[in-house]
Design goal:
Layout lengths: L2 H28 L5 H9 L9 E2 L5 E2 L4 H10 L2 H26 L8 H14 L16 E2 L2 E2 L16 H16 L1
Helix pairs in contact: 1-4, 1-6, 4-5
Length: about 180
């Protein structure tokens, strides 16, 4: 299809890898039985009282909490809630990036049910994670495998609702395949 299409396919592949990595990372973060402090200490030579150092844009550190406090809070957070929030955020962010990349490359296609699905899903993710269908939307067929977008979905949750984590990965696979065809 061309270099822009390959860039979009590559972005879909990278978003999938990142999402799967995040999925794997959430489990030990939320499980107090995991030796995260020992791993962090060994990899980064930090002690339990060390602050988590995250840098601001200007290069200065933001170091408000100790590592052990962060790990304790994470393990006290219900695993499903922590995972659901982070995975839905990753889904929403990835979908917005992918939809924007398709639009910027001029590769939108109103005749493609998959790309129409991505367009509507991107809009939902960028606007409160709710489907927004008014004035006859969706006008064209918008589908991802067995998920068919209809006006009845208006106002309902998109990521973590109509579109589960596995569906998001299917979308990324299908978009990569579409742009490599």
């Amino acid at each position: 299809m061309g270099i822009e299409a390959e860039r979009i396919a590559q972005l879909a592949d990278e978003l999938k890898i990142g999402f799967c990595g995040l999925s794997l990372a959430i489990l030990p973060l939320a499980d107090p039985r995991q030796p995260l402090m020992a791993i962090y200490r060994d990899l980064y030579e930090q002690t339990a009282d060390s602050p988590l150092v995250i840098y601001r844009n200007d290069g200065t550190p933001h170091s408000a909490e100790r590592l052990t406090d962060i790990f304790a809070k994470a393990s006290a957070t219900a695993g499903a809630g922590l995972g659901e929030d982070l995975l839905n955020f990753a889904t929403m962010h990835g979908t917005a990036r992918l939809g924007d990349a398709i639009q910027r490359a001029g590769l939108s296609d109103r005749t493609s049910p998959l790309l129409q699905f991505v367009r509507h899903f991107r809009n939902a993710c960028a606007h409160g994670n709710r489907w927004h269908f008014q004035n006859g939307e969706p006008r064209q067929s918008a589908e991802l495998r067995s998920i068919v977008l209809t006006a009845e979905l208006h106002g309902s949750k998109a990521a973590g609702g109509t579109v589960g984590a596995g569906d998001y990965l299917d979308m990324l696979d299908d978009v990569a395949a579409h742009f490599r065809a």
